[in-house]
Prior knowledge:
Blueprint: E1 62-68, E2 84-85, E3 92-94, E4 99-105, E5 112-115, E6 119-127, E7 131-139, E8 160-161, E9 167-172, E10 191-199, E11 206-216, E12 226-231, E13 235-236, H1 238-242, E14 247-248, E15 256-262, E16 276-285, E17 297-299, E18 303-305, E19 328-329, E20 333-334
Parallel strand pairs: 7-8, 13-17
Antiparallel strand pairs: 1-4, 2-6, 3-4, 5-6, 6-7, 9-10, 10-15, 11-12, 11-16, 12-13, 14-15, 16-19, 16-20, 17-18
Domain ZP: 51-304
GO biological process, one term: egg coat formation
Pfam family, one: ZP-N
Amino acid sequence: xxxxxxxxxxxxxxxxxxxxxxxxxxxxxxxxxxxxxxxxxxxxxxxxxxxxxxxxxxxxxxxxxxxxxxxxxxxxxxxxxxxxxxxxxxxxxxxxxxxxxxxxxxxxxxxxxxxxxxxxxxxxxxxxxxxxxxxxxxxxxxxxxxxxxxxxxxxxxxxxxxxxxxxxxxxxxxxxxxxxxxxxxxxxxxxxxxxxxxxxxxxxxxxxxxxxxxxxxxxxxxxxxxxxxxxxxxxxxxxxxxxxxxxxxxxxxxxxxxxxxxxxxxxxxxxxxxxxxxxxxxxxxxxxxxxxxxxxxxxxxxxxxxxxxxxxxxxxxxxxxxxxxxxxxxxxxxx
Length: 335
């Protein structure tokens, strides 16, 4: 049996017109794709602006004492551990210059506060085989920043002086005592709210007192007529003379004292519509006790103290003790 003839692959085969030709590939087709790399995502970091402290400047007021180890000037050096400032050891030692340094707050290291009519004095004791008193004087008529302190070495004694103002104020206040009153106009019989205060700044805490007050028709306190309604170191006598409701009120803080005065006018023949009130203020250490010379007394069915013992007001009916040197007086405050 004959097999059918097979076409020779080498011969071209004619295909009918209009047909599509097909091409045979001996090897399989390989398709290459470019690998697309995904961008690396980094975690988002939120950076907050640096916080700025509210109080960017902090001030410490202190006593800074430098002591030569040859304290007595005889060529013998005192050992640092054998010398203290009121019991406090040295904070720094310069072995080359043979100088010992002490630092303390004004009310630290056993300091003692004394007061005269013009100054506050902080006293420290430098203790060793020899004793040296160190005093810091605070006057009321200079600012501590106005004079540079230039201490000099004095054998066996050293006085360092710094000066600072005590700022007093006398203000008319609103009925709720929250703000200074914008107007100084009152009707007869109105209650005048007044507040005396002192700014202690770098001193130990202070308590303010109204020593005396006088009302006049002119700025000069010595003119006539004049009416003294606070006298004898804090006796508010207006209520005893006129039956008014004038009084000292309780303190909310030691460096302020509120008081009330019932408005009035002088005799009808005086046509002036203005009154000048001048008060003499003073301050004492808040830690000091209330006494006959540092008090705030009002008369309401008897003498009452606005803080402290009512017995301290007993002298208001007579004559309170004369002023001591230890009082701190301000310049007159006027409103």
